[in-house]
Specification:
About 40% of the residues lie in helices and about 25% in strands. With about 160 residues, it is of the alpha/beta class. The protein has 2 domains: about 70 residues, Transcription elongation factor, GreA/GreB, N-terminal domain (Helix Hairpins, Orthogonal Bundle), CATH 1.10.287.180; about 70 residues, Chitinase A, domain 3, CATH 3.10.50.
Length: about 160
């Protein structure tokens, strides 16, 4: 796997494609209509509605471009199959911090599904990379913001 390679599961790709369709067919026409209405108010230099609609349009166009680039660049893989004894996409991994004794449970997901605040980490994150293809009992060392962390995989299951 290349460092800058982006992997998406089939289900994540479908979600992103659905979002892109929604943005193009629903949100873009709504913003275009808002801009049209705001222009009718007159002087555009002091027209808050017009400025807000133009800003919303720029944000929307940025998100559309981001999704298009992501979908064009991504390598799509099948959704994870349950089972197996190594960490992969869809694995729920319980790790034991060898320094502090704390335990965490992470779900390894593709980049578009990552949500670190809810312990859903991307396979391409430092911790995700360290855990990929490992087994229960394996120890990994990973660079985290606080320095080096050492974990032992104590449990592994799949979504």
């Amino acid at each position: 796997m290349h460092q800058d390679e982006l992997i998406l599961t089939e289900s994540s790709k479908r979600k992103l494609e659905a979002e892109l369709i929604e943005l193009r067919t629903v949100k873009r026409p709504e913003i275009t209509e808002a801009i049209k209405r705001a222009r009718e108010y007159g002087d555009l230099s002091e027209n808050f509605e017009y400025q807000a609609a133009r800003q919303a349009q720029a944000i929307l166009n940025g998100r559309i471009a981001e999704l298009e680039a992501l979908l064009e660049r991504a390598r799509v893989v099948a959704d994870p199959v349950t089972g197996g004894d190594t960490v992969g996409l869809g694995s729920i991994v319980r790790v034991h911090d060898l320094e502090t004794g704390d335990e965490w449970e992470y779900t390894v997901v593709d980049a578009s599904s990552a949500d670190p605040m809810n312990d859903r980490i991307s396979y391409s994150s430092p911790i995700g990379q360290a855990l990929m293809h490992r087994k229960v009992g394996d120890e990994v060392t990973v660079q985290v913001p606080a320095g080096l962390a050492r974990y032992r995989i104590v449990d592994l299951r799949h979504e």
